[in-house]
Amino acid sequence: MIPENKKDAFKRALNSTFGVTSYEDIQRLTTGLSNALVLRVTVLGKPYLVKIARSDTLSDPSLYYYGCMKSAAEVGLAPKIWYTDVKDGISITDFVELKPFPLAKAKFELADLLFRVHSLSPFSKTIHSLDTTNRFAQKFKEAKILPENITIDLFSSLERINNVYPRKKEDLVPSHNDLKPENILYDGKKAWLSDWEAAFTNDRYSDLSIIANFVVTNEADELEFLNRYFRRNATENELAKFYLMRQVMHISYFTVFMVIVAAKGNLIDINAIPEHDFRDFHNRMWEGKIDLALDELRLEYAMVHLEQLLQNLRTKRFEDALIIVARDNLD
After folding, report:
1. Is 126 helix (H, G, I), strand (E, B) or coil?
2. Domain locations along the chain
3. Domain at 103-330: CATH code
4. Per-residue pLDDT tens for 188-225?
5. Is the pTM above the cut of 0.90?
6. What backbone torsions phi and psi does residue 221 show, to the nearest 5 degrees?
7. Domain 4-94 falls in which CATH fold?
């Protein structure tokens, strides 16, 4: 199970951490989309999570996340780190035995967790979600994946958001950026965040929007979630920026998954993609019933976000949010 070129490094890691070179049990974990080999390894009667990067090079940018993970682990936001070696691309952390995480509880605990993540010392790399979304939107257009009439509203809305959305320094914070359910570990008492490979400094509303896909079901939920995060009542402008970023993330998920699937040479017929309710799909993701490693489910998820976006673009709230944010930029 351990790649031949990593066996010696793996033994060094075990010896350095536990004083042994063998283990009692090893299982490969396949959830999530990480490029690393992820293992549950039992050593001296206790399970640990071992991640082995595919690259051997110290300069591999994918190993940048070790520093982010360390910052989070030091303050209890990520599981305890027992061993890391950037050169070998190996890390060993505590393994968290998962328990069901009720959404009503997660809404508050994850708001608190994000507040603490966003309060960490700045990460050295900065990427704004708008830049990422714009880049994938352009790739989507160039690939001519779907007829233009299907996505015309999507791209016009993205342009309108680009024209008004502020990039304020105070909103650029250390961010996890990959807050899918399998990266949220809950042991029945406490939640941690795992898989920091996508961590960098980003707009705070990006992380908030990703979590909101799961824990925010109505405007009352939204207010409770944001008020808990800000530790005060969210302002009109904060609510507007949050709403606009949620639309940006809908566009991002749609274009990213469409581009990924199309890049494999697959022809995409949206009429053949099953329709799903946004809330039901996310509830099933939260319960671990959907695996986005499968291309057919990636397409279904892309369409879930497109349909939700198109619904939101027809609301008065979208127009009001644009006006509120644009007005605030003039102050």
Report:
1. strand
2. 4-94, 103-330
3. 3.90.1200.10
4. 999 999 999 899 999 999 999 999 999 999 999 999 99
5. yes
6. -60, -45
7. Phosphorylase Kinase; domain 1 (3.30.200)
